[in-house]
Amino acid sequence: MAVRVIPAIEFPGQNSAVLEPQKLRVGSYCRVSSKNPEQETSYESQVKHYREYIQAHPDWVLVDIYADDGLSGTNASKRDEFQRMIRDCERHKLDLILTKSISRFARNTLDCLKYIRLTKSLGIPIVFEKESINTMDERGELLISIMASIAQQESQSISQNVRLGIQYNFQRGKPKLNYSHFLGYMKGPRDDKLTIVPEGAEIVRRIFRDFLEGMTIPEICNTLQKDGIRAPGGKAKWYPSTVESMLQNEKFQGDLLLQKTYTVDFLTKERAFNHGHMPQYYVENAHEPILPREVFQIAQGEMLRRQVAKCDSNQPAYTCNKFSLSAITRCGSCGAPFRRHINEYGIKWRCKAGCKQCPSVKEEKLHEAVVKAFKKLPEKRESIVRIDERIQAGGIEIMVEKMRDIERRQDEIKVEIDQLAQDDQGDEQLEKILSLKSELDELAVQYDDLLTKRAELGVQRIQAISLLDLVDSIEGRVTLDMAVARQCKNGSPAACYDTDDFIRRTSKHYGFDTLNHYDDDLTRRFVEKVIVKEDSITVRFKAGIEVTI
């Protein structure tokens, strides 16, 4: 039997000691994980070294230097140059890859082995200079898996050290912020304290003012875009989520809540909101506030109140406000909402329930009634003043004191639960813990209820102040010290701490000419309800004043 030997084909890199006579197409991969000066020097040194090293071999030809600058090695999918190198391998543009070490190539064991096996299947060796490993050697993969595992552990250790450093700074009240995407503050020059940026602070005050005067979040977004005001980060478009986040940001009242998010996995860099998974740190009076504390707290209660508010279509309230009279015009007989209808005779509003005791009303007549109600406000000045005084005299302060009592009791319960949890958990201790937990839940419900009621009173008071300001504007009174107003606008720390000052100095001022015609903006800001009866129309203002036409 004759046996004919078919010789093996020598692929480039199959044996690192024996290379094909034609020139090898060689690429090099370099990476540093940050952009600090020392790392930049390392990055430049790697690029220079491999360029000179490859050019020093006459039988090699340099294809490219693939270099990721300032990127972590834990996730290969986010390294553009690394992915470009892999694509070039798949297109058979490379015969050999050189890199400094396994940790430069990848700090994720799975990624490291995945791409090594891919290049190996393509007949392309990777040479790790520091470890003296060629992936085509028989011992290569075992050594690489060991070294890659060590590199991953090192990366995890670095990540933990960075996390501890950040937590240490949090404990000292030092924030970690992306200032380029933050409105109203910049990093302080010396002590890392937030410093007010006057232009941004004015936008923040405007957003809170508009919200507390009745505008919905989408409406706030639309008015900001209409006025050409840029969102955080410099984008032209404002998103409701951006405004909602700003309305809930404690930094605007001078406080800091640190570690709102945390890294779930150091390899994927996935982040999640911190709902008790990690400790948080709350720092009061950490920096100059943009808003009075009372205004911020009222806004939080108003947010809570609106979250549970629904219009009659079971949709969130903001979806029912296409027209300024939508969702606020009601039948005086049955209480059902009015709906807008258009036909060949014009625009009419009629009771949705078809109530026979309440006739349909032309839109012009509704608009005329609202304008007349606004013009009658100067006659109601004393009533508005009494509402403001009544709220100041007891309503808000009583609720604030009750909320403080609840907070104190909540702290006491948490301490008791911690102490019981450290003891032997017998039936008696467990029953006590469950009882305390039940009390804690009940206190949370009471607190939210008080917060909502306080917000209602706070918004009513803000409306009363704004309505008085409107009356003064209509009557031509001078109620605003312009020098102080400019001081507030420019972010002076003492200028806007008082709620009355904040509202008066940030509210939009209207002249008497405004009331010569129906104004959508005015209606949205001040009118709570329009009640239509057979022989009258009553306009109820958010400050608690009613005018019947």
Q: Which percent bin holds the helix content? A: 40-55%
The biggest sheet, with number of strands, parallel, antiparallel or mixed sense and barrel status, is: 5 strands, mixed
Shape: elongated
- Radius of gyration, in Å, reads 34 Å
What's the N-to-C terminus distance? 118 Å
Number of domains: 3
Mean pLDDT: 75
Structural class estimated from helices and strands: alpha/beta
**How many E-type strands?**
18
Which strand order does the major sheet show? Answer: 2-1-3-4-5
- Percent strand: 5-15%
Q: How many separate helices?
A: 15
Q: Low-confidence parts, pLDDT < 50 over ≥5 residues?
A: 16-20, 315-320, 477-497
Per-chain topology:
Elements: E1 24-32, H1 37-55, E2 60-69, H2 80-90, E3 96-99, H3 102-105, H4 109-121, E4 126-128, E5 133-134, H5 140-171, E6 185-187, E7 194-196, H6 198-212, H7 217-226, H8 240-247, E8 256-258, E9 261-265, E10 270-273, E11 281-283, H9 293-308, E12 329-331, E13 338-343, E14 346-351, E15 361-362, H10 363-375, H11 381-422, H12 427-475, H13 482-489, H14 499-506, H15 520-526, E16 527-532, E17 537-541, E18 546-548
Parallel strand pairs: 1-2, 1-3, 3-4, 12-16
Antiparallel strand pairs: 4-5, 6-7, 8-11, 9-10, 13-14, 14-15, 16-17, 17-18
Helix pairs in contact: 4-5, 9-12, 11-12, 12-14
Summarize the structure.
The protein is of the alpha/beta class and 549 residues long.
Question: How would you portray this structure in words?
Answer:
This protein has 549 residues and is of the alpha/beta class. The protein folds into 3 domains: 24-158, 3-Layer(aba) Sandwich (Rossmann fold), CATH 3.40.50.1390; 183-293, Putative Large Serine Recombinase, Chain B, Domain 2 (Hect, E3 ligase catalytic domain fold); 329-476 and 511-548, no CATH class. It has 15 helices and 18 strands. The protein has helices spanning 37-55, 80-90, 102-105, 109-121, 140-171, 198-212, 217-226, 240-247, 293-308, 363-375, 381-422, 427-475, 482-489, 499-506, 520-526, and strands at 24-32, 60-69, 96-99, 126-128, 133-134, 185-187, 194-196, 256-258, 261-265, 270-273, 281-283, 329-331, 338-343, 346-351, 361-362, 527-532, 537-541, 546-548. The strands form 6 sheets. Strands 2-1-3-4-5 form a 5-stranded mixed sheet, with helices on both faces. Strands 12-16-17-18 form a 4-stranded mixed sheet. The protein has a 3-stranded antiparallel sheet with strand order 13-14-15. Strand 17 and strand 18 form a beta hairpin. It is elongated. Residues 16-20, 315-320 and 477-497 have low confidence and may be disordered.
